[in-house]
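User: Predict the structure for this protein chain, please.
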Amino acid sequence: MDEQLNLHIGQRLRARRRALGLSQSDLGAMTQVRFRQIHKYECGQNRTSASVLWKFACALGVSVQHFFEGWGEQPSTVSVQPVEIAANEGAGLAIYAADAAAGREEQYRRSAR
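Assistant: Here is the predicted structure, written as structure tokens:
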């Protein structure tokens, strides 16, 4: 999910920069961030810190919230599942992902007995 959020922020950054007719070098000069680093932010390769987001927001005339707009509206493609460690007699520890919705949690409990 972190990578998807980084990409979303980068896409919003690129769209606003282009809407204002600025190059990556122009934005870099305004924020004292190298254009190569801006490219990495826009491609979602690097995570953007709060202080850098603040610089971009000020330079581009938007709030920091601008970069997150639309994020909650996207359907999540990442399934977060808790990881449980259970003792298994004679086999040490068994690590499995609990997936109660699919009924796998009970299946693991039965096999661990």
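The helical segments are 2-19, 24-31, 35-42, 50-60, 104-112.
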